[in-house]
Amino acid sequence: MSGEQKVAIVAGGGQNLGEALSYRLALEGYQVAVADLIREHAIKVATEIRNHYQVASLPVTVDLTKEDQVRKMVRDTVDIFGRIDLLVYNAGVAKSANITEYELQDWQKTLDTNLTGYFLTAREVAKVMVNQRYGNIIQINSKSGKVGSKHNSAYSASKFGGVGLTQSLALDLAEYNIRVNSIMPGNLLDSPMFQSLTPQYAKKLGIKPEEVRQVYIDKVPLKRGCTYEDIANAVVFYASDQASYMTGQSINVTGGQVMH
Ligand SMILES: NC(=O)c1ccc[n+]([C@@H]2O[C@H](COP(=O)([O-])OP(=O)(O)OC[C@H]3O[C@@H](n4cnc5c(N)ncnc54)[C@H](O)[C@@H]3O)[C@@H](O)[C@H]2O)c1
């Protein structure tokens, strides 16, 4: 790898955590394919990378749950950049409801995006990485992939599934010098995803929406919410050769909230 510029795909890189990860990887010198369902977001982030970080970037519009589109994303990335060193699978959706009211279509969409999309993307990228005999795959999971989450059955089930997939990919790909790890963020309290769930959390806890934030801070031994930077630091480390003896892991970045 020495001498060549590294290449990353951030799947679900168009906003919020994925956007922050795309910029951080650009800062670390990666050329970044920013892949997202929302075309304008992918273009915005890729343009910012080119202008601000002076590294090449490729916006890709893709539905990561569709096999043909994922194949095209990987083909286009290799056509432009020649290789793929890192896949960050960040795309995820969350819909909160009590189990007795959980709609099948919400279950299906959550499993498709959080788990099937990870499978499809990792599989297609792995084909390239196997040929290279080098690569890193990192899934952005959640602490809900380690412990069940009230009123979040589909989300938690999809993220638990991601742990099994990560471990199995790690076993399949170890002989090709490809490492696969999941990162389990705690609550990103300032993210729109968390804030969109606040009314349901207030209902579930029987408190006012404005009290939800403090309740979630109080659950964390280090007494703060998770930040995009906390996750970016873990991604950069696990993508680096400093983590060369680590694969198949599900790494908590939760301020001590989850310890297993
Ligand atoms: N926000 C939190 O508190 C929190 C906590 C723990 C883990 N996470 C995980 O972190 C990741 C990012 O979370 P976020 O809060 O930034 O979410 P977000 O909804 O703001 O961003 C997700 C991105 O994925 C894209 N996406 C969704 N479905 C897609 C599809 N089918 N094809 C292509 N792109 C698709 C969206 O367009 C969006 O840009 C998710 O995997 C989430 O589960 C979030």
Automatic annotation (TrEMBL):
It comes from the Bacteria. GO terms for molecular function: oxidoreductase activity, acting on the CH-OH group of donors, NAD or NADP as acceptor. InterPro entries: NAD(P)-bd_dom_sf, Sc_DH/Rdtase_CS, SDR_fam. GO terms for biological process: bile acid metabolic process. PROSITE patterns: ADH_SHORT. Signal peptide: none annotated. Pfam families: adh_short. Keywords: Oxidoreductase. PANTHER family: SHORT-CHAIN DEHYDROGENASES/REDUCTASES FAMILY MEMBER, SORBITOL-6-PHOSPHATE 2-DEHYDROGENASE. Belongs to the short-chain dehydrogenases/reductases (SDR) family. This is Sorbitol-6-phosphate 2-dehydrogenase. It comes from Melghirimyces algeriensis.
